[in-house]
Each structure stands twice: as C-alpha cells, then as structure tokens.
Specification:
The complex is a heterodimer of chains A (227) and B (305). With 227 residues, chain A is of the alpha/beta class. Chain A has a domain of 66 residues. Chain A is 32% helix and 28% strand. Chain A has a six-stranded mixed β-sheet with strand order 6-7-8-3-9-10, with helices on both faces. In chain A, strands 2-1-4-5 form a four-stranded antiparallel β-sheet, with helices on one face. In chain A, a hairpin with a 2-residue loop joins strand 9 and strand 10. The radius of gyration of chain A is 17 Å and the shape is globular. With 305 residues, chain B is of the alpha+beta class. Chain B has two domains: 186 residues, no CATH class; 86 residues, Alpha-Beta Plaits (2-Layer Sandwich). Chain B has eleven helices and four strands; from the N terminus they run H-H-E-H-E-H-H-E-H-H-E-H-H-H-H. Chain B has a four-stranded antiparallel β-sheet. Chain B is rod-shaped and about 105 Å long. The two termini of chain B are 23 Å apart. The interface between A and B is medium-sized, with 27 and 22 residues.
C-alpha cells in the first residue's frame, strides 16, 4: 500500500530531515509514527501527500510512484488520501456541510452524489445535526471530526493523521482515536503521526519510531519508548 | 467533469465568497471606484480644457478691409475666392453701403459720430470680408493667398496683422492642453493600475489559508483560481456601474457651475452622455483585464504546493 525505499529529504547541507528511510505499510494497517520534535515525522507526512519531494529514494502509494509527481497530478493524489491535521484546516467561511461537500465538488462529483454522501459521513462522525454551523461555532473535537468526515468522502484507502489530537483534551482525544479505529476496521490504512504517549500505548498497534531522521525501531505491537 | 456543474459551482463559490467577505468586497470596490473616478475626473478636465481652447479658437476671425474705391465685383470675387479655399469655414461679405448702414446702426445713439458722418459727402467706409478659418493654424496660409496681385492692391488693411500673435498663442494653448491632458490621464491610469493591482493582491492575501486548504483537499489550480477571477470581475463590474452612477449624479451640478465660465454649455455633459459606451468599454475592459490577471497571479502565489 505505502512503500518508501531509501528515502532522504535534505533541506540544506546541514539539515537532514529524513535519512535513508525505508518503510512498507500494508493495506488495513494502523501505524503510529512517533518521535521527538524534529525527528522527521511531519516531513514524512508531507512526503506522503506530495507537499514535499524527496531528495533521494522512491515513494509509492498503491503502486503509484509519486516520487516525481507532476503538480497537476497532486489534486488526484490528495483525493485518494484522507488527510487530517492538528490545526484542522477547515474553510472558516463555509459551513460544516459545505466544508465536507467541497472535497467532493472539487473532484467533479455530481450534486446528487454530494447530497447522498455528505449526510452519511457527517452521521459517521456524529455531526449530522450540525451541518449548518460554521467551524468557529464548534468545539475543537467537533472541528476535528468535520476534518475526518471530509477526509472520508472519497472512501480513501489511506488516512494520514498528523497530530490529530494535538489541540484536544483527553476526552476529545479518546473520541477521535475511537473514530480512527472504527475507520480502520472498515479496511482503511491509518498512518497516525503523533507524540502522544497515552494514545500510542492504548492502541497497541504497529509503532515506527523516528530519531534524527532515521527509523530506530519498527514494532508490530509497539509502545511509545521515547524520553 | 461536467462543464455546466463545474461552472455553476465556480459561480456559486464566487458569489458566496463575495457575500461572506462583504467588507473586503466593499473595501475593494471603493478602491476601484476611486481609481476609476480619478481617471474620469482627468478625462473630464481634459475635455473642459480642450473645449475652452476650442471656444477661444472659434472666437478668432480675420476681417479684410478693402479700399473705398474698390469695385463691388472685385470684392465679391475675393469673397468667392476665399470661400472656395478648403481652409476657410466661412467668408462673410459686407459691401461699402452695408458697412456704412451697420456702422450707423451700431452708433445710433451717438449723435456726434452721426453728425460727423453727415458732414462727409462720400461713404468713408470700404467693403469688408470677415473670414473664419477651420483651424487657427490656417490663418497664415489664408493671409498669404490674399497677396495674389488680383486682390492685394485693393486691400486697405487686415485685422490679422494685429492679432497674429494672439492667434498663435491660442493655437499653442489648445495643442498643449490636449498633450498635457492625455499625459495626465496616462499617469493617473498607471497609478490607478498600481492601486487596483495592490487592492486585489491584499484581498487574496487575506484568503491565502483558504487557498492552501482547497489545494489540500484536492482542488485543481483552476478550481481554486476561477472563483477569485470571477469575484474580481464582479467587483470590477460593480465599480464601473457605481462610477457611472456617480458621474450621472454629479454632471448636472458641475455643468451648472461651469456655465458662467464658458458663457454657455461647457460640453462636459454632452461628452459623457455621447461617449459613455466607449468610456465604459475602455475603462471597464481595462479594469476587468487587470483584475482578472491580478487575481489569477495573486491566487497562484499560494498554489505553489
């Protein structure tokens, strides 16, 4: 599903964000990428959504070599990966419904499909009653659920979540992780980038640990072992 | 992707964004209206200067005084000769007796002048021809043609000899007014372009995060840019309409305040009422093009990823 072969990302001669990283993630896996600040977690996430290009190495997603992806192909890639960020990245001038619908509209989905899918995903994340609200009228946990709903509209095979619980309290964190688990149970591969010890330990799933841009451990049922 | 669905969504997005960023839209429209108004103000001032110079030019004419003993046939042939010149707009003839009658009429209330005239046995006045040229620059040529030996000996004097410098000055003023006016319009046009360019850039800068998010969820560059370009075009349309409305509202009072200066119609209203389709097409077209290109480029800056 996801394959990185000897991937390096060098920003300048003295800043090596990722060094010779090789990683295989299979379909339906739930993988946590952990590491301290500056370990290269976010760079790895950016490489997977073609927000950055690797300096060396090859990246493949579902057999698609995205190492030298063209700019005009990036929208197609991003419609195939669900993306969830710590800072939500919601369109503040659009309602919850419109935010979720937007991801379908940009892909050219007909209105009938939009009207069919958006209520479904809002129901999955428990926001079917709040479609008419604007992001600023929601709590942090609710906003993150809107983002997850948006990431689900294309039924992605991969969902990349970069610190999705970074801005949430313990209760909302648990809600979001439960939601990610539920999505994983439907067969979606989850790549969770986090430094939240409790979350990683509670998941008891595969854990890849990064330090100074290198993979230092990769455990099938791992724990958070930093600090 | 069905074109109609996409077009509908892009238009809807543009209108929605306008409505939800109303204050930003209003601020941008105000800037556009100010830019258009300043350009039109200069267009108006240029029209007034040119019209003022033209009014002065229209008032210029030259009178040719013939000697008393000149035969009426010769004066008549001089009149026809002048009328036939393409540079001459009109040539009005007053024979000697008509000149005298006019003179008496003009001095009807002046007993002394009339008494002095009665003292004379003969008509002291000769025939006159008043010549109006199409352009003030044509007078020297017209005067040159009168050196024709057929007429030259019969001419007593010409007012052109007294007014030559004044005519040349008026001619210079007219030419300079046109050049300076066009130059000022050009300078203000460039300033207006810079103001509009920056206003649109700032408007899109405030929405840079939105652009990044649209890109993140898989919007193509066209899908992100098009609503901004459409919004820009709508703002330009509003600005042109508002500026037109302001001009229509302001023209009557401007015209009435100019009337005493021009001793009649200044020609400003007539210019705007007859030239508005061209003005709207040129200014609106230029503004729409500027706004569309600026929006496209400014939105593109945040599409790098």
């Amino acid at each position: 599903m996801i394959s990185l072969k000897n991937v390096s990302k060098i920003y300048s001669p003295h800043i090596n964000s990722l060094v010779d990283v090789s990683l295989e993630i299979g379909q339906g896996e739930f993988v946590s990428i952990v590491g301290q600040s500056g370990a290269g977690k976010t760079t790895l996430a950016k490489l997977l959504i073609a927000d950055e290009r690797p300096t060396r190495g090859v990246i493949e997603l579902g057999g698609w070599d995205i190492t030298r992806i063209r700019r005009r192909e990036i929208p197609m890639l991003r419609r195939q990966i669900g993306i969830v960020f710590q800072d939500f990245k919601l369109l503040q001038k659009k309602t919850v419904y419109e935010n979720v619908a937007f991801a379908l509209e940009v892909a050219g989905e007909p209105g009938r499909r939009v009207r069919e899918i958006v209520p479904q995903v809002l129901k999955i994340v428990g926001l079917d009653e709040k479609g008419g609200r604007y992001p600023m009228q929601l709590s942090g946990g609710e906003q993150q659920r809107v983002v997850i709903a948006r990431s689900l509209v294309h039924r992605p095979k991969i969902l990349l979540a970069d610190e999705p619980t970074g801005n949430l309290d313990a209760l909302n964190t648990q809600d979001i992780i439960d939601l990610l688990r539920k999505i994983n149970e439907f067969g979606t591969t989850i790549v969770l980038v986090t430094h939240n010890r409790e979350v990683v330990n509670a998941l008891h799933r595969r854990v890849v640990t990064l330090a100074d841009g290198r993979i230092v451990s990769d455990e099938k049922h791992g724990k958070y072992r930093i600090g | 992707m069905p074109v109609i669905t996409t077009s509908y969504r892009l238009l809807k997005a543009a209108f929605q964004s306008l409505g939800r960023n109303a204050w930003l839209a209003i601020a941008t429209i105000i800037v556009l209206v100010l830019a258009l108004t300043s350009v039109n103000l200069l267009v108006g001032v240029n029209v007034l200067i040119v019209n003022a110079a033209k009014t002065l030019e229209d008032k210029v004419d030259v009178t040719i005084f013939f000697k008393r003993d000149t035969k009426p046939e010769l004066v008549t042939s001089a009149k026809f000769f002048l009328s036939g010149l393409p540079q001459v707009a009109s040539a009005d003839l007053l024979q000697a007796d008509e000149s005298l009658a006019k003179f008496k009429e003009r001095h009807a209330g002046d007993a002394q002048v009339l008494a002095a005239l009665n003292e004379l046995d003969d008509n002291p006045l000769g025939a006159t021809v008043r010549v109006k040229a199409r352009n003030t620059s044509d007078y020297p040529f017209i005067m040159e043609t009168l050196k024709n030996p057929q007429f030259a000996d019969a001419i007593e004097s010409k007012t052109y000899d007294d007014h030559a410098d004044a005519i040349e000055n008026i001619q210079h003023i007219g030419e300079r007014a046109r050049t300076v006016g066009l130059g000022l319009i050009g300078v203000f046009g460039v300033i207006a372009i810079l103001i509009v360019f920056n206003a649109i850039r700032v408007a899109i800068y405030t929405q840079r995060e939105e652009i990044g998010i649209m890109r993140l969820v898989g919007a193509s560059s066209l899908y992100v840019r098009a609503p901004y370009v459409i919004q820009g075009l709508l703002l330009a349309l509003f600005a042109v309409a508002i500026t037109g409305g302001l001009i229509v509202l302001a023209l009557p009072s401007i015209e009435s305040s100019l009337r005493p200066l021009f001793g009649g119609d200044s020609g400003l209203s007539a210019f705007f009422y007859t030239s508005w389709p061209q003005l709207a097409a040129i200014e609106g077209g230029a503004l729409a093009l500027l706004v569309a290109v600026t929006s496209w480029i400014a939105a593109g800056r945040y599409l790098k990823r």
